[in-house]
């Protein structure tokens, strides 16, 4: 009699399914993105991202209490400045909103791992990630400002910097600046494969960073290209990146997989604002099981090769994982 292969034997109950499960979500995998802004007693919900807020510094510290109690090890900080200008000076000012937030966070929760986003778009009045001349985004003159931004954040107490601007050579510029100033132990998590995606819309509402003219396709990557993502990652690693980000995540599992297989270094998948908003909207309408969908989506990123998950779902996921014990 011919033998029948029966993979279902290892699915027969929850115990054996847990024993042979290939990928796992753990709270240690989570990085929670947070937005800070000037003012007091402000916790402003982002309309397109239910459950995500812009926090004044006093409210930010209160919100961190829940992050820490849930066991989430790290946050990724974005700042909304009081005013903007053409050179994004709020990004690298010693008393910039992110710099203040980092100092406060380290004062209250010294063991929380603070990652800071390094970019100019939230701080420029034109909304682009670099300096502008005659309608063009200037690459090389922007690099010094990005390096100054990273240095000011690290001096404030940031544990890691994450350049998201997609200017050529920015990782090298930041690495050189940090090393010259004695911060050789501060790692860089580069947004290496960052695509010019339609999934960023809600973030631009949150950060007030919609470009005032044109778009970001001259520096963020074409969603049609995979080999280009490998080139960008090659360059960032050569320049000193310790970790890399693939952004967005849900539609770019192939890029996560290729990155992990090719380089073997830690890879973070950024589960971006539009992905979050779609899940929240569908769940609010009763069309999907939110918990099941979120956990499945994040597991798919782990399965593709992600080590870390940057996600606005982090608080919910940490709570669900705790419930499951």
Automatic annotation (TrEMBL):
Highest taxon of the lineage: Bacteria
What is an annotated GO biological process for this record, any one?
A: protoporphyrinogen IX biosynthetic process
Q: Which residues bind 5-aminolevulinate 2?
A: 273, 312
Describe the reaction catalysed, as an equation. Answer: 2 5-aminolevulinate = porphobilinogen + 2 H2O + H(+)
**Which amino acids does the record list as binding Zn(2+)?**
119, 121, 129
The residues listed in the UniProt record as binding 5-aminolevulinate 1, with positions renumbered to this chain, are 204, 216
SUPFAM superfamilies from the xrefs? Aldolase (SSF51569)
Give the record's subunit note: Homooctamer.
UniProt family annotation = Belongs to the ALAD family.
The name this protein goes by in its record = Delta-aminolevulinic acid dehydratase
Task: Give the originating organism.
Answer: Desulfosporosinus meridiei (strain ATCC BAA-275 / DSM 13257 / KCTC 12902 / NCIMB 13706 / S10)
